[in-house]
Amino acid sequence: MEPVPPGVVRAIGGRFVDWLPALAVFALGLALWQGLTTAFNVQTFLLPKPTDIATAFWNDRGTLWDYGLYTLKEAAGGFAMGCSAGILVALLLARFRGLGLALLPFAIAANAIPIIAFAPITNNWFGLLNPVSKMVIAAVLCFFPTMINTLRGLTSVHPSSIELMRSYGGGELAVFRRVRIPNALPFMFTGLKVSAVLSMIGAIVGEYFGGPTNALGVSILNDSQLFDFPRAWAGIMLASAFGIAFYAAVSVAERLTTSWHPSARTFRSE
Amino acid sequence: MSVPGRVVSISGLTKSFKTGVTALQEIDLDIRPGEFVSLIGPSGCGKSTLLRIVGDLVQPTSGTVLVNGKTAHRARLDHDYGIVFQDSVLYDWRTVSRNVSLPLEMLGWSRARRKERVREMLELVELTGFESNRPWQLSGGMQQRVSIARALSFDPALLLMDEPFGALDEMTRERLNMELLRIWEKAASTIVFVTHSIPEAVFLSTRVVVMSARPGRIADVVAVDLPQPRGAETREQPRFFELVTAVREALAAGGRGQPAPTLPAGTEERY
Ligand SMILES: Nc1ncnc2c1ncn2[C@@H]1O[C@H](COP(=O)(O)OP(=O)(O)OP(=O)(O)O)[C@@H](O)[C@H]1O
Ligand SMILES: [Mg+2]
Question: Whose CA is nearest to atom 5 of ligand 1?
């Protein structure tokens, strides 16, 4: 591996100043939410005040956090399964063009299927309480974006880049190792970032169709059925936070591995 | 049917593309070891295509190409070629020095040997200090110099260069011309060089192959009998200007699609 260029560390950490506008908007949004719900006396079952949600979270923080971790593990498991399958299939389709022509139409058609609708079925297949039932839903959601983006990266290589490899007597393996795969990395990460978000959605929705009581989705569902809306909202907020954290983790991995990409120039042109 | 003492032996070469364009027609050309042959001709006359066919990157429609007595395919697998493409073709995911060391990696050189050679090559093309830059952080001319360093790095038997100095300023160009001649003498390599510049072709070459367009043919071959080694004074010799004129007239004649007029002494091997 190459040494990490100095600019990257800063790109990950980010300068605090760069985050100020976003933080300001976030604070303003919260303040508006709090102000409007108080001013118009909005009912809690419609939209609880941020302070109520925060209190509900704080009172139950240990339990909710554990529920969140459980769901995050399901999401991460599904992400790992779906994305590795997607990358593998992309490599095969890029290597064997005939296979791609034969299978791609089906993959695209399958992508149009609302996969979430299968959640009750996978619950039935693997068991309500088995985390695999949620992982499979998450995995199926992750597969397509990862596969199609990686495939595009593997195939959208400038012909002269391949000619150069050939001029050195390099065969198909060398072309993959030294040209197609590095070229595909930025594309693959686009797919992985989409997948990180989708995997969290898959796990939560899978849990809405039934799961163990220590899962965040089940907890949110139960709370809303028991009219404990602030706690349900706290669960939703936590799910969002985990989803964002997952996305951010993938972004950091992206910056570390594809800092060479011209699009990284804004981060390292000092 | 290998011709002894020929690095490149092309006979009856024709290339038609699927689009219906006949890029090259009935090309016959022999290149001896240690020759420096320039290809010159109007844009689109098939110079790049000819270079690609010699390098076994494009298959001819008919005719044969032998390189060092082998098929072009065999020569390619034997690492006989160093190619400088018309566009520099650098990998963004590699630093400048790792772009230069790419062919060395593929030849299985040790890390220490690669490092030393990369340093030498970057010094040669005056890019010392840019080792860890990315290609997109360099100017077009600098990128082209990286690709020249890369092609020269492993002392290939046959250098195929497609307008390598096209993107450079006149000063750098003349300096790299001198460097290229020095390398050519030292490494005793054979060079096929595509250019649009008549003085450059005459200055560098032992022979200038003048091509005509649509379909691409060899209109004339001008032997350059300027003394070796060449230097700044070469460009001031009367013979230099005579040869420049000869090539210019051959080009003009080829462009009109008429047989070339009788050429001054020193011109030989038509077709
Ligand atoms: N892959 C291809 N498919 C179809 N036609 C091609 C292909 N490559 C080249 N040609 C055609 O072959 C002809 C010769 O092209 P080539 O690139 O060899 O010209 P050239 O002499 O190098 O021109 P220039 O000096 O502008 O670089 C052109 O008419 C071009 O359109
Ligand atoms: Mg060309």
Answer: B17
Per-residue pLDDT reduced to its tens digit, A149-198? 999 999 999 999 999 999 998 889 999 999 999 999 999 999 999 999 99
SS3 B30: strand
Domains detected in chain B? 1-80+158-165+189-260 (3.40.50.300)
Point out the residue among B55, B98, B136 whose CB comes nearest to the CB of A167.
B55
Atom 22, ligand 1: which residue's CA is nearest?
Answer: B48
Asked, for residue A157, whether it belongs to a domain, the answer is yes
Is A269 part of a structural domain of the chain?
A: no
Check whether residue A184 and residue A60 sit in a common domain.
yes
Residue in chain A closest to B108 (alpha carbons) equals: A168
In this complex, do A161 and B55 lie within 8 Å of one another by their Cβ atoms?
Answer: no
Check whether residue A88 and residue A186 sit in a common domain. yes
Q: What residue numbers bound the domain in which A235 lies?
A: 45-264
Tell me the two tokens of residue A149.
């983006």
Task: Specify whether A75 is located in the same domain as A33.
Answer: no
pTM (2 d.p.): 0.82
Please write the tens of the pLDDT for every residue from B90-132.
999 999 999 999 999 999 999 999 999 999 999 888 889 999 9
On whether both A8 and A118 belong to a single domain, the answer is: no
**Which residues of chain B lie closer than 8 angstroms to A183, CB-CB?**
93
Both A14 and A118 in one domain: the answer is: no
Q: What is the dihedral of CA B244, B245, B250, B251, to 10 degrees?
A: 70
Count of CB pairs separated by less than 8 Å, A with B: 59
Contacts of A254 in chain B (CB under 8 A): none
Among left, alpha and beta (phi > 0; psi -120 to 50; other), residue A208 is: alpha
The domain tally of chain A equals 2
Distance from CA of B170 to the nearest CA of A (A): 27
Are residues A133 and A53 part of one domain? yes
- Ligand 1 atom with the shortest distance to the CA of B211: 21
Question: Is A176 a domain residue?
Answer: yes
Same domain, A89 and A177: yes
We report the CATH number of the domain holding residue A115 as 1.10.3720.10
| Cβ pair A167:B87 closer than 8 A | no
Pocket around ligand 1: residues whose beta carbon is below 6 Å from it? Answer: B 17, 19, 21, 23, 43-49, 86
Rg (CA), chain B: 18
Neighbours of B257 (CB within 10 A): 11
- Residue A198 forms part of a structural domain: yes
My answer on whether A193 and A238 are in the same domain is yes
Strands B81-84 and B70-71: unpaired
CA of B38 to the centre of ligand 2 (A): 13
Query: In chain B, which ranges are continuous DSSP H helix?
Result: 47-54, 72-77, 96-100, 102-106, 111-124, 140-152, 170-187, 198-204, 238-255
Among residues B108, B59, B53, which one has the least CA distance to residue B79? Answer: B108
